[in-house]
Recover the amino acids of this structure.
């Protein structure tokens, strides 16, 4: 049973997680080389998707905690600004990757999902890759490194681990919600574990 005070926010959060699943699937298609895009375009496309995923995670945090006093933050899209502001409002706002025990419907934390510190690092890395920069930076050079694909795959895996099954501790500090992306169609399941009303 879902607590009524959070149902609207958590349903909206589920929609953001469905979009995240589709973006991850689009990255799979690009990385498998079935798009016909040249390597440079694949790298840019994937870094763009990673940046959008950072924003979706940050917006998801804001959406899930809709009962927090966020003011102008509701109009923000910059993941780093949202994360910094939410940290000051509710220290446990960020989701953590989990392993779900379906027999007892209990969760254990995973340590290999994208952390909020890594989200900030990835957000800025994507910005560096996606912006051409100054005239000097725009001159022909080795714009892409051989390790870019491995880096993209590493970040993608961390995001998939986080979003595949994760928990959020709500602002009341007693309600914990578990989210699971249940299939490739992007279906999202959520359920509270404690503090139900």
């Amino acid at each position: 049973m879902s607590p009524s005070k959070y149902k609207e926010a958590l349903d909206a959060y589920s929609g953001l997680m469905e979009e995240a699943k589709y973006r991850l699937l689009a990255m799979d298609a690009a990385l498998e080389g079935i798009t016909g895009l040249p390597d440079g375009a694949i790298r840019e496309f994937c870094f763009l998707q990673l940046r959008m995923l950072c924003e979706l995670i940050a917006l998801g945090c804001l959406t899930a905690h809709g009962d927090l006093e966020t003011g102008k933050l509701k109009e923000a899209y910059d993941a780093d600004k949202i994360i910094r502001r939410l940290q000051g409002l509710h220290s446990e706002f960020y989701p953590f990757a989990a392993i779900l025990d379906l027999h007892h419907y209990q969760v254990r934390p995973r340590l290999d999902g994208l952390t909020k510190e890594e989200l900030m690092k990835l957000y800025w890395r994507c910005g560096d890759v996606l912006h051409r920069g100054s005239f000097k930076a725009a001159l022909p050079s080795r714009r892409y490194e051989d390790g870019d694909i491995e880096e993209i795959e590493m970040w993608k895996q961390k995001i998939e681990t986080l979003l595949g099954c994760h928990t959020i501790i709500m602002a009341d500090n007693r309600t914990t919600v578990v989210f699971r992306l249940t299939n490739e169609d992007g279906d999202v399941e959520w359920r509270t574990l404690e503090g139900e009303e």
